Amino acid sequence: MSILNYAPARHDEPPFLEALDRISTAAKRHGKFVGILVSDGVAAKKTAELYDIIAVGGDVKAISGWMGGHVKAAKAESLPSKRLDYEVLPLPKPDTMFELLARFDKDTDPRKVNLAPGAYRDDNGLIWLLPSVKAATAAIISLPTYEHQYLGIQGHVPFLRQAARLILGDVAVETGHIASLQTSGGTGACHTGAVFLKKFHDVGGDVDVFISNPSWENHHAVFQHADFVTRSYRCYNAKTRSLDFAGMKADVDTARRGSIFVLHVCAHNPTGCDPTDEQWDELSRIFKRKGLYAFLDCAYQGFATGDLVRDKYAVEAFLREGVDMVVAQSFSKIAGLYGERLGALHIPCRSEFAKVRVVEQLKAINRREVSVAPRFGADIMYHVLSDEALKSQWISEVKIMSDRLSDMRRRLVAELQRLNTSCNWEHITKQRGMFSYTGLTAEQSRYMTDECHAYMPPSGRLSVTGLTTSNVEYVARCMDHVVRHT
Ligand SMILES: Cc1ncc(COP(=O)(O)O)c(C=O)c1O
């Protein structure tokens, strides 16, 4: 009974029998056969109901026929439990955002407004096919030699180098040792980054992952799926409707060494509240001092200020400080390449020797999970980023998107002020990027959705891209109405 760390004086001692019972029940629950060795036929008969297999130390031959029948019956009984019965599967929690959008699609009211889109829309409410991306796509398709061939396991390597330049800067790419992997969008980058860290950073199984409260609704799920325990850190002050820097700093400062913090590089989803450059500097110093790991998620580079370089300040600050980091980069919103699932994972390493190992491990994970990333989006974006004229055109298109978002914020606030709504709405213009935390309560957001057909999640998050010059007045009237009447 070494597994029990206990040697019974007699084989019929209750604690001993109870322990056996527990072991056999647990084993059976996991679909195992359980056997016992006894010394005679009487004991064998006694235990026949509890065990699948009974070996008798004495006269085996005399009872082998009897025992054979029992073993067969036990095996037959346990077989059905090994079958996966799909009908007993629990239903996972539905994705609230996708549910909301499905409701919006079904709504036939002519006033309906989608205030929750996750993809950038133009002033006509349409997904914008960026002209630079369109030109690159046309150029690629017209190549007589274009091949729909697999990429290598790491992905489109020249694209990855351009992507790394964009988010980490030219100097880091030229002089640093950046291990990169092409991923399935920003979600894929978060996932593979999480799997990599679980495997190689959380070897003791005691590393916590801290996620901003609130955050992109998928962050907890992605990290939990990689077997991490996730926790929250403060980032938003609901009273001032702005960044809770003191809370954020305190949570970072008290985290255990080695903890991972998922940080939004810019245009925080869902609050639109980012730290200033000075605050990023301060945070990066704390990360360095405390030995924390920065997981920098960047899905909206250029959307906060309209300037791709200014928006990557957080990455620069952490690089400068030499903080251990992973960067997850998405091209969905910033290039309008949603369906192509284009993303990249970058891990700055201290030497070329280390970089080779990191790249090979990332490739090994990728090969097991998806084999290789999709090709077409990487070809398109490589074409954009490697052609100077197309690249500057694309940079100006990112600014067009960011400017439209800022303009819509201003118009909405101007309308609300014109209506003399009792609240102060200035936070909407102070927040940046695609989202704004309006401060509407769950009840008010439900009213907006159910009664005004202006669809928004219970958090009161407004996807500013859902506003257009033709609906902004209506949305302001709805918001004015809900704050006056609820
Ligand atoms: C903060 C954040 N990270 C990652 C993603 C995922 O990006 P992708 O759509 O490229 O998978 C999103 C998308 O909404 C996001 O908001």
Automatic annotation (TrEMBL):
Domain of life: Eukaryota
EC number: 2.6.1.1
Entry GO CC: cytosol
Keyword terms: Aminotransferase, Pyridoxal phosphate, Transferase
Family annotation (Pfam families): Aminotran_1_2
PANTHER family: ASPARTATE AMINOTRANSFERASE (PTHR11879), GLUTAMATE OXALOACETATE TRANSAMINASE 1, ISOFORM B (PTHR11879:SF55)
Name listed for the protein in its UniProt record: Aspartate aminotransferase
Native organism: Saitozyma podzolica
